[in-house]
Design a protein that fits this description.
This protein is mainly α. The chain has ten helices and three strands, in the order βββαααααααααα. The chain has two domains: 2-98, Homeodomain-like (Arc Repressor Mutant, subunit A, Orthogonal Bundle), CATH 1.10.10.60; 127-248, no CATH class. It has helices spanning 42-50, 59-74, 81-88, 92-98, 102-125, 131-148, 155-162, 168-193, 198-221, 225-248; strands spanning 2-6, 24-26, 32-39.
Amino acid sequence: MRFWNKCSFDPWNFSSHFPASTPYLPLIKGGSFPVKIIQTNLSDLLYFRAMTTTADVSVREQIIQTADKLFYKQGYNLTGINQIIEEAGVAKASLYYHFPSKEDLCVAYLKRRYEKWSVMLSEFLHGAADPRECIIKCFECRLAYLQQNDYSGCSYIRIVAELPQRSAKINRQVILNKEKQREFFVTKVNELKKSSGAAAKDLANAIFLLFDGATMQCQVYREVTPVTNAIKALKILLDQQKGHDQNGK
C-alpha cells in the first residue's frame, strides 16, 4: 500500500530538497509539484486521513514523518541525524531550528506514534458502545497494528530498551504515552463496573499488563498467537469479574 504525500520544498530550487531519483508527479489541483512516495500501512493512512490537509507538508512535519519511519524501522540509536536530513530533504539548519537535539525529535516521534495509535483505535471502536466490547476491540486493534508493522512491538518500549541511561525528556514522554494507554482501560472498566473503586483499578491494571505483555511476546515470537491467547484470557477475566459482581449484589 502506498500513500502519496506532498513534501515541503523550495520553489526556486527543487533539487536542493529532492534526490535525482525522486518521482515528480502532477497533482490534480494546484499545478505541478514534486511529490515523494512514502511506503505506509493502515495506521499511517488513518492518521494522515485524520490530519487537516494543507497545500504543503511543513518542513517540521516532513522531518517528523521521516524520523517516524526510520526510528521505528531501524531503531533510535542506528538512525543518525544526517540520514534524517537526507531522507527528509531538508537543510541541517532547518532540522535544528525545529528540533534543537535528537532527543527533542524523539519526543516528537513518540507523540506522533501515540497520535497514530489513537486514530487507528478510534476506527476500530467506531460503532462500539459496550465497554466490554471496546476493551476487546482494543486488543484486536493491537493485533492488526502488530501484523501491519511486522511484529515490531511497542515503539515506546523499544525506545526505552535502546536507552539504558534514560533521557529525562524521552522518559517523561514514554511514561505519558503508556499512562494514556492504561487510562483507556481504567475508563472502560469503570464504565463496565459502574464504579471507580480499588477493584476497578486493579482489574484495569491487570488488563493493561495483559495488553503490554502480549505485545512484547508478539515481538519475540513474531506471530499472532500471544495476542489471540491474550484475547481469550481477557474474555475469561471479564466473564469472571462479571460473575463476581453479580454474586456480590
